[in-house]
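Predict the 3D structure for this chain.
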Amino acid sequence: MYLNNNFERCYVKCNLPEIIHAQFPLANCYTRCYSVPMKFRSLQENLRKTLWERIEAGDLTGLKLAAQTGFKQAHISNFLNRKRGLSLEGMDKVLSVQHLSVLDLLDAAEINKRASILPPSEDDFENVVLVDPPVAAQQPLLTNETVKDILKFKKSFLRRLRPELQGSRQEWQRFVLIRLDAREGNSMFPRTVPGATVLIDRHYNSLAPYRKNDPNIYAVRKDDTCTFKYVELSGRQLILRPQNDRFPIEVIPVEEDKAPHDYIVGRICHIAIET
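Done. Predicted structure below.
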């Protein structure tokens, strides 16, 4: 069991909705709803499939679609028979006259995988997702495909935590969990141990102490992942100090176009150890 009662284990995996509850222009939807593997050609193919289903059901003909869109019948025929594609404007026109949304062209399973909406919480607990360190370090919104587990924290506990936000971090999902590996857990021993689960407040990326005379432990972006250390600023360098003196002090130079808070993933605001 966990040593602290601020959260309870959630054994149910997240059940994300099968549709995104917002509409974007076609180009924006392609960019925001899908990552790189989803191609514009795939959207066109799904549109073509949908139109053929309507034609085969007797609800549509190529001639009728040409009349609705103002396109030549040959243009529509070539598209339906995969001899040519449509421009973004052409797809928008077809979607409009057929009363389709670009969401109708997306696979429900793919939307579920990439959705960034946590399941709603109707009790006194809030769902917080457990992810790998590179995900926590780089992804503002956490998608279903990156979720390894979900833990429930008391809402009253999370509300008491004071943010200290610097830079453009408002849209980042605030709380995230990481499980420490052997090196990271041992480097901050006895504050942490390997396998400990740490709660990161990604809206606290200031180097100001949360409590007077009590240094913060931070998740720090390093080599596209996270390391967990005490942090000090010396000139244009971040000094990363471990709790365990058997581990070396690390130095991260702050690049010219960046600020120290750009390297801070967040403050460690809760540590749980399984026994």
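The first helix runs from residue 26 to 33.
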